[in-house]
């Protein structure tokens, strides 16, 4: 199955990027993140998307719900998490899926969204990779609006998660 982004009903102006802070293979799924977040007493996974090492995009929190990912900065955002901790262990497949997803999001909002790292609103160094270079964003967090290029196709798997309401 391949993913096609559709705008949620709620307003969105920013996209935040995260990393999972683990390179362990057994942690490479949205279901694991969901379990971690529930173990912390939260309603479930706080991210809308999770990108596995093989580039597979997994769904997390429903896009129509506000994420629980960047404390105090969740309203009007979409949250994306890539599995990983060490910069050298992120994969080209992950970055290709991230770029493909962000191109779709940017197109859906006609270039009127900005892209940010969690580190911009938190003392954490998350994500640990240079997201500005991966996405080609400018100093204001804008991606170029790509109109003439076909968006890369990447695998998509709907996670089987039970997410309670916030």
Automatic annotation (TrEMBL):
Keyword check for Lyase: no
Q: Which residues form a coiled coil?
A: none
- Keyword entries, A-Z: Hydrolase
Q: Does the keyword Ubl conjugation apply?
A: no
In short, the EC number is: 3.5.1.28
A Pfam family reported for this protein in Swiss-Prot or TrEMBL: Amidase_2
What is the top EC class of this enzyme, as a single word?
A: hydrolase
Cross-referenced InterPro entries, in alphabetical order? Amidase/PGRP_sf (IPR036505), Amidase_domain (IPR002502)
Q: What is this protein called?
A: N-acetylmuramoyl-L-alanine amidase
What species is given as this protein's source? Paracoccus spongiarum
Q: What is the lineage of its organism?
A: Bacteria, Pseudomonadati, Pseudomonadota, Alphaproteobacteria, Rhodobacterales
